[in-house]
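Board notes (copied after class):
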Amino acid sequence: MATTGLYSPHVNHPEKRIARNILLAVILILFALLTLFPIFYMIMSSFGPAVATAGTSRSIFPRVWTLDSYKAFFAFSKYSVRWIVNSLIVASATVAGNVIFASMAGYAFSKIRFKGRQWLFGLILVAMMIPYQVTQVPLYILIANKLHMTNTYAAMILPGVVTSYNIFLAKQFFTNIPTPLIESAKLDGCNQLGIFVRIILPLSKTVLAVMAINTFLSSWNTFFWPFLVTSKDYIFTIQVGLKTFKFANETLFAPMMAGATLSALPMFILFFTLQKYFLEGVTIGAVKG
């Protein structure tokens, strides 16, 4: 019997194995609690009274349990519901753009030979290494000063309509699709668009789902860029709208946490209904078969 691997040092020592397993379980539980505590604190705080509070007058559990904070969130601004709708519009459009354009680019880089292909893909890899914050100033100058697109959906959607990471993800996945399958379609008279739509996309539901989920989560949770390009209440996303609950010396903390809880609901629903795609997204394209 082989004795290599994680459990091999304690195969003949059950007491040590049990102690080691307990220690690992305790460590994992502690990390899980640290990760879940902000979410727990947010949900508990959302059931507090809808009053302004200072930073030193908060507790984990509200003294009075009520749903008034949820009512106060919707009553705070006539655009409260629209903030959620705006986030949905921006996230959905960004997902659609990435699924369409990133998959097309990934297919071109993986299956179509053209001059400069490796050079262009190298530029995409370099773009992945540039921190997002570095591009904010030139991007803002382009959107605000040159194109005059502030306070529009386009200003929030266009910078993320296709990302280098999604192109890389699609390219890595499409590389594993057998090339003879594409050659057979060409012999049958199918052009590149037909091959992409009729053969590649049906075989790529997994990577497209992963791409859509990750893009939706990223776009929905983005605060900094929408904050830069919007200044009117009616065009705020939910993440930007929540900042209006904070004033100079006090904060409508419970209503803000109620809004944060509502904004997190799509994330919870996506995770628990599409959990297998989250797990596949960690390894997809990482191993070439």
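Comment from the instructor: The chain has a mean pLDDT of 85. The CA atoms of residues 37 and 238 lie 22 Å apart.
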